[in-house]
From TrEMBL:
<dbReference type="InterPro" id="IPR016142">
    <property type="entry name" value="Citrate_synth-like_lrg_a-sub"/>
</dbReference>
<dbReference type="GO" id="GO:0016740">
    <property type="term" value="F:transferase activity"/>
</dbReference>
<comment type="similarity">
    <text>Belongs to the citrate synthase family.</text>
</comment>
<dbReference type="Pfam" id="PF00285">
    <property type="entry name" value="Citrate_synt"/>
</dbReference>
<dbReference type="InterPro" id="IPR036969">
    <property type="entry name" value="Citrate_synthase_sf"/>
</dbReference>
<dbReference type="InterPro" id="IPR019810">
    <property type="entry name" value="Citrate_synthase_AS"/>
</dbReference>
<protein>
    <recommendedName>
        <fullName>Citrate synthase</fullName>
    </recommendedName>
</protein>
<keyword id="KW-0808">Transferase</keyword>
<dbReference type="InterPro" id="IPR002020">
    <property type="entry name" value="Citrate_synthase"/>
</dbReference>
Amino acid sequence: ITTLQETLESQVAPKQASLAKLKKEHGSKVIGKVTIDQLIGGARSVKCMLWETSNLDPEEGIRFRGLTIPECQQVLPTYSGKAGDGEPLLESIIWLLLTSEVPTKEQVDTLTAELHKRSSILPAHVVPLLNSLPKDMHPMTQFSIGLNAAQTASVFAKAYGELEYFHFLLRHLKSMCLKFIASNTLRRYLPADGAPKNEYHKYALEDILNVFAILPEIAATIYRNVYFDGVVKKDQSLDYSGNFCRMLGYENPGFDELMRLYLCIHTDHEGGNASAHTTHLVGSTLSDPYLSYAAGLNALAGPLHGLANQEVLKWIQALQTKFAKEGKEVNAETITEFAWETLNAKKVIPGYGHAVLRKTDPRYTCQREFGLKHMPNDELFKIVDTIYQVMPGILTEHGKVANPYPNVDSHSGVLLWHYGFTQYQYYTVLFGLSRAVGGLCQLYWDRALGLPLERPKSHTPEWLENFAKNN
Ligand code: FAM
């Protein structure tokens, strides 16, 4: 079997070469223009990032390394081992996003085993730190603290720091002779042995796999602490998602399948979304993968981004409470009434709209299909379906939104709820566990391709006014 590391190592040099060729031969070609609207309006559609792992089409939705979600469901290895028989394993998406290759079940199994093994790297101070946090601190804040605290295990930071120290010492030694002796002595004790910039990706990969491996325990500890007894039990005979479900305290194989689907579809959504972009930006300073993704988690914690999944559940509950009090049924008519109340109060309908998508999110559609297959008569599932029937019309009539259709967050909560996972304040942590995969697989390529510090140009309002006057 070819391992993940061997597969990647064989890809790095050719990719470096083809990027260098592209830059050399076509570097000066113009691929877009930027209007003042775009500069003020959150850089929508401005083409300014390289992103390997996925691409988002406004009409069609996401493709992971060229594959749509239904295609991934057809070709990627599942728990039973047969592609198409159940949901893809998260490990197979990790493999696909990192290498752009569809792995065999044997390859996926080696990755599962490797991640289980690496999970023991979680530093001993992290769980006690999480245990000390107040129960009413938002789970996303705790998740970010946990990952930041685990950064003491960063191989990348250590290698980089030691290299820096090595060069610092050499710089400050005056005589050539002493420099020569010190250099040879120090090299013996330094793991990186003066590794050049084009080796950073090797240390980054170590950290990235370690982060994937430790995140479930950080996430499960938070869940068990905030809502239960703080006890986290593992079952490493299972895959990554199945083991994570046991850690959370769930034993239902149906829930394991939902978790596999959930973790796969939230991984990546090209580069411009706030969590992925933040990870990429922070990583471009050569901050290590732990710190880079912790920053990504903080972006995900915003209500316009990942927190929308908890907001959807809150919105549905507020709707149910209101109409229960009034003795009315929740149906298309009452949902419409409640939606207009929300819009007239100048609030957003959570789970609807998107900065890029202009059609129903395929991540919504595949969750709907999961619901139709596994819980067609669930009360909340039916409410979400009724919302889907009326909301695009309401938002179109409202006239402001560019996309009146549902996004991924509109559906994820009700599926979790069906299996008894009702603690919606925690839902974004699941998103965060998954988004680590997209953000960090790309971060591997950022370092392998030697991408530089990201530093776009900003302008003052005065500059813009002047520019507008003269153009
Ligand atoms: N309900 C009410 N108003 C909305 C709306 C919604 N669902 N979506 C957009 N609008 C408003 C928006 O606030 C803006 O109003 P102003 O002109 O007053 O500022 C106007 O419509 C035009 O916005 P847009 O161009 O359609 O959307 P943006 O690209 O600016 O923003 C979102 C995209 C996702 C932030 C926005 O649609 C939104 O706030 N949706 C609700 C929150 C949500 O579901 N977020 C999750 C997105 C998800 F996919 C993810 O990141 N996980």
